[in-house]
Amino acid sequence: MNYKLHSLSQEEESAVNKGEKLPIMEEFYTIQGEGFNTGNAAYFIRIGGCDVGCHWCDVKESWNANLHPLVSTDSVIQNVISYKADAVVITGGEPLIYNLEYLTQELKKNKLKTFIETSGAYKFSGVWDWICLSPKKTMLPLDENYKLANELKLIVFNKHDFIWAEELAKKVSSDCSLFLQPEWSKSAELIPQIIDYVKTHTKWRISLQTHKYMNIP
Fold first, then answer.
1. Which element (helix H / strand E) includes 153?
2. Which residues of 9-30 are buried (b: 16+ CB within 10 A; e: fewer)?
3. What does R_g of the chain's alpha carbons equal in angstroms?
4. How far apart (Å, rounded) are the C-alpha atoms in residues 177 and 151?
5. Mean pLDDT by 10 residues, the chain (217 residues)
6. Using CA of residue 98, residue 102, residue 105, residue 109, what is the dihedral sign?
7. Distances (CA, A) of 102 to 90, 98, 113, 147
8. Quick count: other Cβ atoms within 10 Å of Cβ 214?
């Protein structure tokens, strides 16, 4: 999987390492559709590059970082400010492949809340108000990352995922919010199963991809 940036000049490589440039797949102002913060307005920044490789991923075009333009982080921040957003969600791809210190520090200087959605497979960088940990079986989170999560969101694709979810729930902090979310292509089959499960395992909540129902990004 070609997720690493290549053919960079020394100047570009230095800027990426410092977090001053990032391969941006897309950025947009929308309503958060999943998990704890569902229904809140937020500016989304999707960074290209991912080697986690979930077979049911609905943004596989994000995997190859070289397909996406290397963009000045300062210009992205100005885009956020222009929309008058008060919260920013950094997603991917797998955003923690990159150094996110510069991006998040500059966002915080502008009094913006910083949220991240990550598999947790890489070491954390950046300053975060909310961490959504969404582990994948193909590449598990680093042990140190479980306790950092404000929210644990597991995608349910088959019945074994309920067992796996319980194993991971033991690793996060006691105040971490727990969510089960049906994989979109099997949602009609899985939603009744998740409903029944949550009714008997009440520490869990249900997350739905409401942005898809609303037909927004």
1. strand 151-156
2. eeeeeebbeebbbbbbbebebe
3. 17
4. 5
5. 81 96 97 97 96 84 93 98 96 96 98 98 98 96 98 97 98 98 96 98 98 95
6. negative
7. 13, 11, 14, 23
8. 11
Is the full-model pTM beyond 0.90?
yes
Q: 143, 37, 49: which is closest to 94 by C-alpha? A: 49
List the chain domain ranges. 10-153
DSSP state of 48: P
State the DSSP H helix or E strand holding residue 23, giving kind and residue range, or none if neither. strand 21-31
What is the helix, strand, coil percentage profile of the chain, to 5? 35, 25, 40
**How many residues can be counted in the chain?**
217
Q: Which fold has domain 10-153?
A: TIM Barrel (3.20.20)
Determine which helix (DSSP H) or strand (DSSP E) holds 24, and give its type and residue range: strand 21-31
